[in-house]
Amino acid sequence: MTQRTVIATADAPKAIGPYSQAIALGDLIFCSGQVALDPASGELQGDVRAQTRRALENLSGVLRAAGSSLPGLGCSAARAGGAVPCKGRAAAGEVP
Questions:
Q1: Which CATH superfamily is 4-91 part of?
Q2: Where are any strands of DSSP class E within the chain?
Q3: Which of 1, 12, 24, 35 minimizes the number of CB atoms within 10 Å of its CB?
Q4: Residue closest to 59 by CA, chosen among 77, 86, 84
Q5: pLDDT digits over 50-67, tens only?
């Protein structure tokens, strides 16, 4: 059986509730959704562009803690009224 590892880092907001920032299972990493909170202050700041950047920086911190990075993503999906297909800048691992 493949070992399951809980991923936690101070480079992203702490998980609030009964879940983890991410779970590594073999070569796969399953990340929880990231909000645009600053991990140091716990505050939401800026406009939607700044908040999007912060959420991706938080995700990047979780991936680094798991030994990966944004360019290492196979696919990501965001929920804002529906799933977002893997294409464009986010799929290329770039922070807007």
A1: RutC-like (3.30.1330.40)
A2: 4-7, 22-25, 28-31
A3: 1
A4: 77
A5: 999 999 999 999 999 999
